[in-house]
Every structure is written in C-alpha cells, then in structure tokens.
Amino acid sequence: MREIALVGAALLLAAEAGIAAPVRNEPIQPIEPAVVTDPAKVELGKQLFFDPRLSKSGFISCNSCHNLSMGGSDNLPTSVGHNWQAGPINSPTVLNSSMNIAQFWDGRAADLKEQAGGPIENPMEMASSHTLAVDVLQSIPQYRASFAAIYGDETITIDEVTDAIAAFEETLVTPNSRFDQWLRGDDSALTKVELEGYELFKSTGCTACHNGPAAGGNSFQKMGLVEPYVTDNPAEGVAGLTGNDIDRFKFKVPTLRNVALTYPYFHDGAYWELEKAVDVMARLQLGRKLAQEEIDKIVAFLHTLTGEQPTFQMPILPPSTNDTPRPKPFE
Amino acid sequence: MREIALVGAALLLAAEAGIAAPVRNEPIQPIEPAVVTDPAKVELGKQLFFDPRLSKSGFISCNSCHNLSMGGSDNLPTSVGHNWQAGPINSPTVLNSSMNIAQFWDGRAADLKEQAGGPIENPMEMASSHTLAVDVLQSIPQYRASFAAIYGDETITIDEVTDAIAAFEETLVTPNSRFDQWLRGDDSALTKVELEGYELFKSTGCTACHNGPAAGGNSFQKMGLVEPYVTDNPAEGVAGLTGNDIDRFKFKVPTLRNVALTYPYFHDGAYWELEKAVDVMARLQLGRKLAQEEIDKIVAFLHTLTGEQPTFQMPILPPSTNDTPRPKPFE
Lengths: 331, 331
Prior knowledge:
Two copies of one chain form a homodimer. The radius of gyration of chain A is 22 Å and the shape is globular. The first copy, chain A, has twelve helices and two strands. The relative contact order of chain A is 0.17. In chain A, strands 1-2 form a two-stranded antiparallel ribbon. Chain A has two domains: 39-169, Cytochrome c-like domain (Cytochrome Bc1 Complex, Chain D, domain 2), CATH 1.10.760.10; 178-303, Cytochrome c-like domain (Cytochrome Bc1 Complex, Chain D, domain 2, Orthogonal Bundle), CATH 1.10.760. By secondary structure, chain A is mostly helical. Chain A has helices at 2-16, 39-50, 62-65, 112-121, 130-138, 141-151, 158-169, 178-183, 192-204, 239-242, 274-286, 292-303, and strands at 220-222, 250-252. In chain A, helix 4 crosses helix 7. Chains A and B meet through loops of A and loops of B.
C-alpha cells in the first residue's frame, strides 16, 4: 500500500514537473503533440493547403481530398479529380502522415515535401503544373511577402511551396486519443471491451504490421498474403515502380490512427464498414476467421485510436490580382 | 480650437462608454458586427455549411462555391457542380448576404433559409435531394444530438437543416472595413485618392443602386440600362420567374462589400478586372464614359470596402456510421 502511494506521489510529482509518465511497453506508442518551430512557415503552408488556385480549375485544393474536417480524408472510395475524373486509388489520410516511412500507397515519394508536388501536376488530380502553380503565387503580393519573409527571396520556387505545405502537414498529428491516455497509464481510459479488443488485436497478429506510434505506416506488405485480395482496382502497388512481380499488391501499411474517421478502407476504398475491414484483414493477411464477437471487440478498440483532431482558424487567402493566371475549370 | 478639443473629448468619452460615435450621413452605412444569440445553432450551421455529405457525391459542400477563405465566393465565372457541370451563373458571395432583399441573382428565394435548400437538390449543383440529405444527417448520432438540443427533437427536418445553415450565414458579416472606419469618423482611414474615388462613385451615380450597408443587395435593376449588356450567358434574370419581357436581364444588384475579393464580376462572371467592371457599369448603366484616372480612383475606393473576414475554427464533422447512405460521386 505504502509503495503504491509512493509511486502515485512520484507520478504526480513527475507530472507537475512536466516529466512524462512512463509509457506502457506496447507495440503501439503514443502520438506526440506537434512542436511548431516556424509558425510563419506553418501558416503559409496552411494557406497553400487550402488554396484551390494550385489546381488548373481553381476548384481543387489539397484539402479537397485530404479534408481536415473529415479525418484528413475525403471519405470516398477514390477521389474526385480535375474534370470529375475518378482517382486511381483511395486518398490516404494526411493526419499523422509525417510518421509514414514514405508517401503514397506505393511509397513513391520519400517524404511529405516530395508528395506535395505530385497531385498539383497530376492531370487526374489538380491538373496544374509546377510552373503554373508558382506563377499564380508569384502574382500575389501577400504570397510574395510571405515567401520572402520565410525563404529570404521574393522569387517563389516549387521547392519552397512543397516545403511550406509539408511544414503545415507535419503539425497535423492527433495526440491524446483514449488509447494513448491508456498507454500513458490511465487505466480508466479504456472500457473492458476495448481492452479485450486490444488484446485480441495483438493476439490475432495485427500488430505485426500495425505498430509504432501511427499503428502502421512504417512498412510495406503484400495485400492478400494468405488469401488473394479480389478487386477491380488496377493499382499494382510497389510493382508499379519496380516492375518486379514479387512487389505486386505490395502497399504501404496504412495507419490505424483515426481509422474510425477514414472510411472507406483499403487502397481501393472498397469496404465501408470497419467490421468488414477487420474480417477481411484477419482472413487474408493472417489466415484467421474471427468470430463476430471478436471483430466487434477489435472495432471497439480501433475507435479508441481517434485522437484530438487538429483545430485551427480557417485561413483567409490573399486575393488574386489582374496579373494572376486565371483558373480554367472547363478547358 | 477649444471646441474641437471638446468634441474630441466627447467622442473619446462616448467611445469609452461604448456609445457609438455619430456615423457620417452617406448613402452607404457601416456594417454592424454579427450578434450571435444561439451559438449552438450557429455551430451546427457551420458544420452543415462545410459538410459535403449534403451532396450526392460527398464532395461538394456549401463552402465549395461560397468559399470562406476566398471572400465567400469561388472566384470562378460560374461554379463547378456535380459531375463537373458548369453552373448557369456566377456564385454570389455569402458574405453579408443576410442584408440582401432576396436571395439568388433573380431573387427567387425570399431569404437565406429558403436559399440554402436550393443547391442541395439542384441536379447541376449538389445533386442530392432533401430526403437524402436528411437521411444522411439522421444516421449520424452527433448530428441527431445537435438537432435535438436545438430543435427539441431527434427527428431532423430539412426545415431545421436550412434554418441552421442560415443562422451560420447570418454571422458572416464583414464589419470594420477602412471605409466603415471613415464612415464612423476616422478621417485618416482613407487616403486622398480613395476619398476622391468615393466622391466620384457618388457623383457618377453609382450610389443610386449601390447604397445601404451592403452597398447593394437591396434592389433589382436591369443589367444594360443605357447600352445593352452583351453576354453568352442565357440567364434571363427576373423574367425567368415572371415571364414578363420587361424583367429580362433584371438582376439583384450585387453587394460591393469585399468586391476586391469576389472576382470575376457580373452575373456571368465575364469580367475579372475591377477596372473593367467599373468602366462597363458606368457606360451601360449610367451612360458615362469614365476616364482611366477616374476609374482608378473608384477602384481605389472599392478596395476600402474589404472588411474583416469572418474567422473561425474549421469545423470537425461527425463521422458517418454503417447506416449512413453512401456518397455516389461517379453515378
């Protein structure tokens, strides 16, 4: 009794002193809050993230498909792109994406900065070009001033554009989920069923891939390891980059952080219900047919991975000028 | 000298006591800040305004075409609707729209509440139906709870949906522009050129239609009064409602508040430059060919009508459930 009291007092002192409490030794670790070192760059990145003038149409922004009101995703099987083209693959959430081993489902971009340049010039997505996007920004005095203040020069480059967007995206983490509260020692943060779900999640083998702070995002795995995954979606995964048959259907393991918000699931967005996604994963990846009660418990656990969503002021974008290249939504 | 000092002291005392200073007697009056009487309803309305699930595709929200990062407009000649259809007319700004005599360019909706129902079920815009939109909201427990708290019943109606959206839109006013500061007595708020622009704006006759707090929005006028307005846009204006030839090209006078942000101009969005819009208006409506110097001064004045943009936290939307009707972006 006395020892418990002493430990409790020590934890209290540690908390008061700002010393982190010991974290439970589990395959998933807590998400750390964002540390903003350059608020001006983050603010510029936020403006760019919300600015549809980075698209040819003037209608699509980063936030269109990575909607920060909706778990950093668009909640569609595949995204709507320029001229209403159906995107080839499900938009992954931008939340906690800085923790990914690489970006895109096939990992073809090394980091967020490299990723940010892709959709801008993808004819199926924003359908602009890096030159045009920079010309648009360069024509707007407030943007020129922001870039000059951060990068020391009024001449804007695409490298700076993607750097600022990445800086904003790095702040889009979701700490303090109920699961993280439990990881940090709060036994009351999870219900009995949720905790049983977590134990099942581990004993079934899910943590083999869904581990680390993001509960995923840190490895590439074959979709359909034990049983093949049946889909109409033509995406090849890493094989599309390497040309190696062994990499066919190898995708980056998605984060399970905020998974209750980022439906529909898998690279083709074919499954809307978390229950079905869990069933499919257990069967195809682990060769396990889970009972409905087990699935429900795991789903209850997965809901505890919803963290504090990034909240911020909606940005006010600087207006275009007479020199700004005009959007071409219908050309 | 002593009298001026006394007046100054009196104004100072009035300001300290929260008594409004006398407003200059001008055809345009200041915008009053929003008074929020039901913050829960406004917050719900904000969520709905940003929720793309009110559209068939799950991709288009009110904010898509009335983007609060961009002057409450989309800065496109006509809007992008469901399946990338080109809208029939320029999206008017939602900012200060509560001051409009009626809503839409032809005034076919009496107020914001009636307006809000239109785009949801317009097959060219959000392409949903009132029934489907309500079914979506009804399937989401957090929405049910919000509606119940405000309207006393968990059964959501389209009437409540549009009422909440209108309540949010009523807060979207832009007070304290430099022109309003001048109207309230601050002589230093406008430059000499801007003030000359305002005097020209009045002497040219612009205030005949662009008057009141919104500098417009309070009457219907024929577009092309002295000279005809040439456009490819088939919109008929009020004649489309009345069938009367005399109402052809009769449109609601748009507000000039934040006009520097709400390009391109006129019901067809055909003019991107404020200078050209002023030139066209003076010629077609007033039979006046303005000199370039006069145009530039009026444009300088118009820039002073940009007020404080509404700033607020980006809403976090409650997630869909397994019972939520799914979006159909590509059907």
